[in-house]
Each structure stands twice: as C-alpha cells, then as structure tokens.
Amino acid sequence: MLFLIKFLYSFLLPPGLFVVILLFISAWNFYRRKKSSAYISIWLAFLIYALSMPIIGDLFIRSLESRFTPPASVNGDVIVLLGGGATSDTPDVDGVGQLTGSSANRMLTAARLHRQTGLPIILSAGQVYNDTGNESLIAQRQLITLGIPEDKLIVEGNSRNTEENARFTKSLLDEKGFSRPLLVTSAFHMERAVLNFEKVGITVQPYPTDYKTNAGSIFYLNKLAPSADTLSNVSLASKEYLGILAINLGL
C-alpha cells in the first residue's frame, strides 16, 4: 500500500503533474474534435513521462557510471579533485559558501584518499557565475577544517569547465613535477574528464565517486513513477554524451 500511495502521489507533483495536465488537455481536444492538438499533447505527455521514469533515467546515468570503477590500489603521486558546483553566500560551519552535493561527495572521497595515501590534493575549480562560489577556495577551507594540512592543498581556482580543469591542472602538474595524477570526479562525469585530460597529454588514474544510481537494477512499482530527480539525471547524462561527442569530433 505504501508504494502504491507513493506512486499515485508522484502524479500530484511535477513532472507527473504535467503529464496529468497534458492528458486532460488531450482529452479535451479529442472532445472538441481537434485531433492534431490532442495527439501532440499525448506525445508530449509520453515524452515527459518516459524521461522522468527512474527505470529509464537509471539506464541513462548508469551507462556512464559503469565505464570506470575505483582502482583496487592507488598508483599516483597527486590527487586531482574536480569541482561540481558551490554557493557563494550561504552560511557554513567556519565561513561562508558551501559545496553542492556532487562537489561535496567528490571532496569527501578526495579527503579519504588523502588520509589513506598522504598524497597532496590539487583543487581544480573556479567561480563559474557571479552568484556561485569559488569552489577551490571553499573546498580548501573545508578540507583544512577536516584536518588536512594546508601545505597538502594546491589551489587551481580559475577553471570554469572541464576543458579548463585539464589545461590549468597540466600547468600545475608540470610546475610541481607530478606525473601520475589520481583523478577524482563524479562517476557520470569521469569519461568526459578523462578525455579532456588526455587531450592535453595527461594520463590519469580514474577514481569515480558520487554515484547517482545503483550498479545493479531492481524493479518495483515506483521505478515507473515520474520523478524530478530522474529528469535531472537524464539531463546530466545528455550533457555528458554531448561533451564526449564534441571531444571525439575534435570540437
């Protein structure tokens, strides 16, 4: 009964609510004998529903997340941590500005890897928009709070996308004499990141984290319930595929 209630409830909130509205519009257009408009509404409802079902969204994101797995042993001389979003003025424990979910997950993995290996961490991420924080500086502050020595943190705070992450990090690697970087980023983002680093002549050891879905698939009723989170995952995956395609086309 609980799963049924959750399933039905999902149609009272976006995007499920949009599906219901479009179906009502379609029925009204059929009643008014406007079949073309009715069919358009039906197809829009179907498209929104399909792309917001977890059973579909999981396939999109899992197809990227399954391409790399964390290595059994680390063979690197530096950890390269890529950013993934930050707020600029929200209150934090010891300052202002916080990392968003993906960034925080990546940072936590990098911190744990540092504890295991003692490797220094290059924080590669800058400020993308006027209302976002400088991710490297925020991560630096939070990692110091977590007990990581400041001299183990190397800030690259100018990059605004993955292509710049790779270019600016290469300069630091050359300057500091590092040659075996361990790359930490979200699993869905790893392939595009690896390709960008290869493009500037850097071979990395991928260490994916921040998984959005399980490695295996289990079906239950709510896998068919429309979800805004699923739409977000489909959007993330689509962005990655477009980026991968652009790199492979040499753009």
Q: What is the CA-CA span between the terminal residues?
A: 52 Å
CATH fold description of the domain at 78-209: Rossmann fold
Which regions are unreliable across 5 or more consecutive residues at pLDDT < 50?
none
Structural class: alpha/beta
The proportion of residues forming helix, as a percent range, comes to 40-55%
Strand order of the largest sheet: 5-4-1-6-7
Radius of gyration: 22 Å
Going by CATH, what is the homologous superfamily of the domain at 78-209?
Answer: HUPs
Q: Which CATH class of the domain at 78-209 is shown?
A: Alpha Beta
Number of helices: 9
Anisotropy-based shape: elongated
Percent of residues in β-strands: 5-15%
How many DSSP-defined strands? 7
CATH architecture of the domain at 78-209: 3-Layer(aba) Sandwich
The helix/strand series, from N terminus to C terminus, equals: HHHHEEEHEHEHEHEH
Strand count, sense and barrel status of the largest sheet are:
5 strands, parallel
Structural features, described:
The chain is α/β, with parallel strands linked by helices and 251 residues long. Helix content is 51%, strand content 11%. The protein has a domain at 78-209: Rossmann fold (3-Layer(aba) Sandwich). It has helices spanning 2-9, 16-31, 35-52, 54-65, 101-117, 135-145, 162-176, 190-199, 228-248; strands spanning 78-82, 91-92, 95-96, 121-124, 153-156, 181-186, 205-209. The strands form two sheets. It has a five-stranded parallel β-sheet, sandwiched between helices. A two-stranded antiparallel sheet has the order 2-3. The model has no long low-confidence stretch (mean pLDDT 94).
